[in-house]
Design goal:
The structure holds 2 protein chains of 2 kinds.
Chain A (H helix, E strand, L loop, with lengths): L20 H13 L7 H9 L3 H6 L2 H15 L5 H6 L8 H4 L8 H7 L18 E4 L18 E12 L1 H4 L6 E10 H5 L7 E8 L3 E3 L2
Antiparallel strand pairs in A: 1-2, 1-5, 2-3, 3-4
Chain B lengths: L13 H14 L5 H14 L2 H13 L1 H9 L1 H6 L10 E6 L4 E6 L8 H4 L9 H9 L1 H7 L9 E6 L4 E6 L11 H4 L5 H5 L9
Parallel strand pairs in B: 1-4, 2-3
Helix pairs in contact in B: 3-4, 7-8
Classes of the chains: A alpha+beta, B alpha/beta.
Chain lengths: 214, 201
């Protein structure tokens, strides 16, 4: 998307980590609800992206996080729209969920552990460094991590990262692995005559997004 | 209220909305406000770009560590105690006399939290996410970074769970400096790649 104006960055030395107290709370309750195990990272991303594009662009970052979390809570039936409107709970969550509540003592170990994305694929990687690939022209209705600007474009495999969880299916709750590659696209292959100077874009793409070119 | 995907809605006060959501989740027993405080404290005081600066300064002064970063950045960085959430799969990309690297997440806001902390507002903004890939030189110019025309700019779009840290060039005039002396020159913006490391005063 173009025409979004200047970046207008705040100077690094002056920029606060949070710009309002509510942003802190949104970061924290978004992270803290992850261990409840009701959704995964790709479901969260899909929930944020599923807003109307005008809302997505107008909202600040943490507003988008909040919108995504509200959507997930309603979709999973944990919170009702009426509760959101009232600002209060109509009743407690089941014990099976409250038992997973993140405690203060668990914060550091949970963050240190993280959530590695490796997952073995069914087959060996099909491409090797240097192979030419085209990004398949796809337009799935659900979540995907192939950015629009590389669809149909030709690049070259830079390296194989290992097998990682395939996000398109993960957003539907399925955990399957697929080979993940770093693919190099010359700027001219993406932007044509408007490409500026010597530059290239490297994009991490899963094998199902790619087809070989000779 | 959750947004109806088919209609745009007028902005509501985010502070009130956040308060309502925290109240509901607390009343349901799904979050512990003390755990939220601990999370906030972690990202306000313990995890930030000082961690990344330590990685870079060590790489500038210890060739063995630099080699380790090149072959297994996740393990090398973990050896300094930095890892976990949003840094599970690390790759370090090195600036040289002829290559300059810059990192973006065009799809959302992926960023290496254990070494850089939470991303700045501009990194998450639509203009940066759009132009970093299509016109990186104009983006660098907005940060006051002018590179020779022959320098190849490599833009890394973090579309998967790989997280990228730029290893800036060590500034001239720092020969013989210790890692401790070098660390203050390693700015967060240099590790994202929108600037070069600071020059010695």
């Amino acid at each position: 998307m173009d025409g979004l104006g200047p970046i207008d960055p705040e100077p690094e030395a002056e920029e606060p980590i949070f710009h309002a107290d509510w942003e802190k709370r949104v970061l924290a309750f978004t992270v803290a609800t992850g261990p409840l195990g009701l959704w995964n990272i790709d479901m969260s991303r899909h929930a944020r992206e599923s807003q109307h594009p005008a809302d997505y662009l107008r909202n600040s970052y943490y507003e988008n996080w909040m919108a995504g979390l509200e959507r997930l809570l309603v979709q999973t039936g944990v919170v009702t729209p009426e509760e959101l409107a009232a600002g209060h709970s109509a009743g407690p969550a089941p014990d099976s969920l409250t038992a997973k509540r993140l405690t203060p003592e668990q914060v550091t170990p949970v963050l240190r552990k993280g959530g590695p994305a490796d997952a073995p694929a069914d087959a060996a990687p099909k491409f090797r460094a240097g192979d030419g690939v085209r990004v398949r022209l796809r337009h799935p209705s659900g979540h995907t991590r192939a950015p629009g600007y590389v669809l149909g474009r030709i690049g070259a495999i830079d390296r194989y990262h290992g097998d990682h969880i395939f996000p398109d299916r993960h957003a539907m709750g399925e955990k399957i692995g697929a080979p993940l590659y770093s693919v190099r696209f010359e700027a001219a292959a993406l932007w044509g005559d408007d490409a500026v100077g010597r530059s290239a874009v490297y994009v991490d793409l899963w094998e199902p997004y790619l087809e070989s070119v000779q | 209220m959750p947004h109806d995907p088919d209609h745009t809605e007028p902005p509501s006060d985010p502070a009130l909305r956040a308060k309502a959501l925290e109240t509901i989740l607390t009343e349901k027993g799904l979050i512990d406000p003390a755990a939220l405080d601990a999370l906030i404290d972690t990202y306000e005081t313990r995890i930030g770009p000082r961690n990344g600066a330590k990685v870079v300064a060590k790489a500038w002064t210890e060739p063995d560590f630099l080699d380790w970063l090149r072959t297994d950045a996740t393990a090398a960085i973990e050896s300094l105690g930095f890892g976990g959430r949003q840094g599970e799969h690390m790759r370090v990309v090195e600036n040289t006399e002829v290559i300059h690297n810059i990192v973006v997440c065009t799809l959302c806001s992926c960023y290496p939290w254990p070494v850089l902390g939470l991303p700045p507002v501009w990194y998450k903004s639509p203009p940066y996410r759009s132009r970093a890939v299509s016109d990186p030189r104009s983006v660098l110019a907005e940060f006051g970074t002018e590179l020779p025309a022959e320098t190849e700019i490599r833009v890394w779009d973090s579309t998967a769970e790989m997280r990228y840290l730029v290893l800036p060039k060590r500034p001239a005039g720092t020969e013989g400096w210790s890692a401790e002396q070098l660390k203050p020159l390693v700015t967060r913006n240099a590790m994202i790649g929108v600037e070069e490391a600071a020059r010695p005063a």
